[in-house]
Design goal:
Blueprint: E1 3-7, E2 12-17, H1 22-39, H2 48-59, H3 62-73, H4 77-101, E3 105-108, E4 113-120, E5 123-127, H5 133-147, E6 151-154, H6 160-172, E7 180-182, H7 187-195, E8 199-205, H8 208-220, E9 224-228, E10 233-237, H9 243-255, E11 265-271, H10 272-288, H11 307-322, E12 326-329, E13 344-347, E14 364-370, H12 373-381, E15 385-386, E16 390-392, H13 396-404, E17 412-413, E18 428-429, E19 432-433, E20 446-452
Parallel strand pairs: 5-6, 5-8, 6-7, 8-9, 10-11, 10-16, 11-14, 13-14, 16-17
Antiparallel strand pairs: 1-2, 3-4, 4-20, 9-19, 12-13, 15-18
The protein binds NADP nicotinamide-adenine-dinucleotide phosphate (NAP).
Length: about 475
Amino acid sequence: MSYQTVNPFTDEVIKTFDSHDDAYVEEALTKGHALYKKWRNDPVESRADALNKVADIMASRVDELAKILTVEMGKRFSEAQGEVVISIAIARYYAKNAAEFLKPKNIQSAIGPAQTISRPTGILMMVEPWNFPYYQIMRVFAPNYMAGNPMLLKHASNTPMAADTFEKIVKEAELPDGAFTNLFIDYDQVSHIIADERVQGVALTGSERAGKLVAAEAGKYMKQSSLELGGSDPFIILDDADLFEVEKIISGARLYNAGQVCTSSKRFIVTEKNYDKLVEMLKKAFSEARLGDPMLPETTLAPLSTSKAKKNLTKQVAEAVDAGATLAFGSVEQTKPAALFEPVILTNISKDNPAFYQEFFGPVGQVYKVRDEEEAIALANDSHYGLSGVVFGGSPEHATEVASKIETGAVFVNSFGGTLPELPFGGVKNSGYGRELGDLGIDTFVNKETIVTKHEPIDLNNAFGGFV
Ligand code: NAP
C-alpha cells in the first residue's frame, strides 16, 4: 500500500511516504500498552495541559496547517483554515470538560452506596478518512486521550502528510511516548492490530464497505467498535418554508468541501408548491460556483480529493442518467483537468434507479418532488443511511416535529448546522453506530466500572445484600 501526497488540482505527486513494518507496529503497541497501565492511575485532569498545548501549537500555525490540506486533498484554503479552527476547538472542549464528563456517578442501591467510575480500556485503533484529515483525527484523539486510551492511527493513504503533521504536533506538545502513533500500514496490519489483546477498540470513519470489514474484524475478536459511515442526508423543504432562508445556505449545504461531506445535503425533498423554485435556486447556486484552484480566494468550488474519486463519481452520474434520471444541470462528461468536477443536478430519480439509494460523494444534488409532508418524511426515511438532515418550515415547532420523525442521527431545523464540539455526531442504519463529540463522544471506549461499597456487616438473610 502506497501512502502518497498527490495534489488533486494538478495531479502532481508531491511526496511518497515509506510504510511502517511490523516491528514498528509492535513497538507502538508496547509503548501504548505501558502508557495505558500508567494512565489508569493518573487523574483525568493531569492530561489537560498537554491537550491545550496541542491546541496552542495548532492555533499558532493555522495557515501552515491549512495549506497542507489544500495541497493534499484539494480543500479550499478558507475551508482548510476552518477545519484547523474546529479541530482546535474540539481539543480545548475536551481539555476543559473531560474530567466533568468522566467523574464518578453515585447510585443509591439496595446493597449500599454505589458508584460508576470511568476507566480507560486500553489501546484504541483509529482508521480515518481524507475528507477532514485533522478534524476526523481530533474527534477521536481528544476525548480518548483525556479518557486515558493511547491511540494508533491508520489514516487514508492519500492524506499521509496531514497524519504525519498531526503526530509531530502531538510530539511537540510533549505527550508521552505511545500516546498517539501514526502508522503507514496496510489493511492486514490493521487486522492484526485489532486482534492484539492489548488493543481494546477500533473507531472507523469512512465508507460502508470499510466499516463492514473492520467491524467484522472487531466482532471476531470481541473488541468494542464505533463506525461513522456514509450518508445520503435529506434536505426537506415544507410548503411554508422561507425560501429566502433556504437560498442563503443551499450552496454550502451541497458544495462545501466539494460536496465530500458525510453530512452534506444529498437529497433535496420538496413539496409540489416549491419544487420548480427550488430547482431554479439550486441551478443558480451551482452555476455561480467558481470551480478552480483551491488556494485562490475567488474559487468557491474545489476539486475532488483524487482523480480516482472523479472517475467514480462520473460513472455514478452516467449510470443514474442511463437508468432514467434527468440531468437538470451539468453534464455526464467531465472535461476539466485533474480532479476538477463540474456540479450536476439530477431529478426524476425513480426508486429502481441505482442512484436512489446511493451516496454521491461530490457536487451532485438530487431533487425529489413530493405531494406533501407525509410523503417527504416517508421518502427521507426510504434510505439505507441515517446520518443527519435538514428541515425547513415556517413554524420552527412544527418543523422540529417533522425532524423527530426522521430516522437519522441529527437534524438541523431551519439551518445548516455543520459540526461543533458539543454536538454529538453519529448515525443509525448503514451510517454506523456510536457517537463522537459532545459528552457522549467520550464514553464509547471507556469502562463504566460499578463499585459497591458496603458500610454495614453482611446480612446473609437479606437476599439483596447477600446472594441472589
Ligand atoms: P474509505 O475508503 O472507507 O476509507 C476510509 C479509511 O478506511 C481510510 O483510512 C482507508 O484506508 C481505510 N480502509 C478502507 N478499507 C479498509 C480495510 N479493509 N481495513 C482497514 N482500513 C480500511 O472511505 P472513503 O471513501 O475514502 O471516504 C468517504 C466515505 O467516508 C464516505 O462514505 C463518507 O460519507 C464517509 N465519511 C463519514 C463520516 C462520518 O463522520 N460519518 C465522515 C467523513 C466521511 P485507505 O485510504 O488506505 O484505503
